[in-house]
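Action item from last week, closing it out:
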Amino acid sequence: MDQQTRQALKHDQFIDTAQHGLEWATENRRSLILTGSIVGALIVILAIGAFIFKNRSEQADIAFGEAIQTYQTPLAAPGQQVPAGVKTFPSAAERAKAANQIFLKVADSYGMTASGKMARYFAGLTYIEAGQNSQAEETLKQVASSWNGDLSSLAKLALAQLYRQTHRDAQAIEVYNDLTAHPSSAVPAGTAQLQLADLYEAQNKPELAKKIYAQLKDKDAKGPAGMIAAQKLNPAQAGAPLAQ
């Protein structure tokens, strides 16, 4: 087959391919237009959704900031002199109750936003401070089941503390072990292990606590957890025992 014939065949194949494409496009023109319209509509919907979500996120940030401001309001005993115009609370429990209501409102109104999710976590914390343990446990369990690993681990850590306060050490130990096995940037394994060792010390089980401290010291000698563990093992050498 000469060069000219080969070129002609290639040209014919190209024409056939192009023709096939044109025929397909002609036959499916209506569906293509419909598909294009749908895609265009989806883009518009997504753009509007992104704008709405951004706007709601900004509103959530503002509301969350107000809740935090209440949570950080100073405490003042009855009769104590305070500057004019400065709001205070008579106790941490009263402050927690006031902040809790705002956190819950933010969480319920903006639950899909980052601030809304964080507000739910702080609602759990303020429930604890207000002495409402059953509500605290329920709320923190909701946050603990979150897909956000950092927020979930923070909620679990708070749950463990609640279990300790309510004399459920076995459940607290289970949570600390889970956090150790599934660390996050918010709650590293060392943090969970230090809390577990502290629990063992409170249970008057110093040997179990020392075992954890020794492991942390070996694994993370220059890290925060390792340095705290070393101080726990040798308080005299460190200068003074670490405050409990």
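Closing note: Residues 49-73+89-144 form one domain.
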